Amino acid sequence: MNGTAEQIKRRLISISVPVLNEEGNIDQLILRLQGVARDNPAYDFEFVVTDNASTDETFAKLAEHAVAEARLRVFKFSRNFGFQRSILFNLLNTRGDAAVQVDADLQDPPELITQFLEKWERGFKVVYGIRRKRKENLALLWARKIHYRLLRMLSEVEVPVDAGDFRLIDRSVIEHLRSFEDRSPYLRGIIASIGYAQAGIVYDRAERTVGKSKFNFFKLLTLSIDGVCSQSTKPLQYITMFGFAVCGISILLMVAYLIDYIFTSGTDPRGFTTLVLLTLASIGLNAAFVGLLGEYIGRIFSTVRGGPVAIVSDRIDSFAIEHEENMEIRSK
């Protein structure tokens, strides 16, 4: 690393935490983040929280902690801009030499940040957690496994399997994130596509003890679709290849039916079932493919329309005056 030993010793680490209706977890969250800071005295820390328009007392509890915890910085959004955009805004507004994203539900242990930092010091620009075990129902568990592997198969870059958003990224990676204008970002894939040396650390994910998960089946499905559409155009290529294959088969069937009509006798209608099945299959496939194309078109629309990643309605930041100009640049 460049710089004097003292400069390296006191580098700033940002811990990024997106929250939504997590009032029951705030006290324990701040306590454990403070513990991480105590366990790593070689670094300075800041705790950057983005409140995605919580409707409970989450923001009020964060304001209470900010009175005694000067390292705490909070941005409350004017509305719910979505989980991934909340993380992106948070990362772009950190000031650290590296940033670590942690969920407020504490299922990913903040204490693992110490090992993340050790890997970072060894030159890895991205260090992510690999979930070896997680306590949830079997159907959802297998759905996640299928999603990760399907995404890796379709992606044009190598996306880590069984890894969520719990990760450390270097400042250089954060600066590259500014160049992406995707309004439906899938950060795990985007960070993987940037490149640089990456390392994974295996851990067992804890069970949520307070509050409820904000991700139901449909939100997880939406995230999965965002992941596929964000990471690859291969589905479009597969549709094109499938379309040519179906076209070729259709031509062969047309020739076969024409020969059958010319050289066979009989007036009884034949192939009725085949026609019905082909018609239904065609309708189903067309509907699915049009829907997929719509996803890509929707993403193009969102990107072309532009606008901010998120809008802040309230802010708690003891460094607000000193860093006002810097924050305005980072929020663009």
Q: How is the secondary structure organized here?
A:
Elements: H1 5-9, E1 12-19, H2 26-39, E2 44-51, H3 58-68, E3 72-77, H4 83-92, E4 98-101, H5 113-121, E5 126-134, H6 138-154, E6 163-170, H7 171-177, H8 187-194, E7 198-205, H9 217-231, H10 234-263, H11 272-305, E8 312-316, H12 324-330
Parallel strand pairs: 1-2, 1-4, 2-3, 5-7
Antiparallel strand pairs: 3-8, 4-6, 5-6
Helix pairs in contact: 6-9
Task: Give a description of the structure.
By secondary structure, this protein is an alpha/beta fold. The protein contains 12 helices and 8 strands. Strand 2, helix 3 and strand 3 (72-77) form a beta-alpha-beta unit. The longest helix is centred in the last third of the chain and has 34 residues, at 272-305.
Keywords:
332 residues; alpha/beta; 8-stranded mixed β-sheet; 12 helices; 17% strand; disordered N terminus
Distance between the termini: 30 Å
CATH fold-level assignment of the largest domain:
Spore Coat Polysaccharide Biosynthesis Protein SpsA, Chain A
Helix fraction bin: 40-55%
Major sheet characteristics = 8 strands, mixed
Query: What would you report as the Rg, rounded to the nearest angstrom?
Result: 25 Å
- The CATH class name of the largest domain reads Alpha Beta
Shape: elongated
Strand content is 15-25%
Query: Which CATH architecture of the largest domain would you pick?
Result: Alpha-Beta Complex
Number of domains: 2
- Average pLDDT, rounded to a whole number, is 75
Task: Please name the fourth-level CATH homologous superfamily of the largest domain.
Answer: Spore Coat Polysaccharide Biosynthesis Protein SpsA, Chain A
Helical/strand content category: alpha/beta
Low-pLDDT segments: 3-8, 320-332
Strand line-up in the sheet with most strands: 7-5-6-4-1-2-3-8
Strands, count = 8
Number of helices: 12
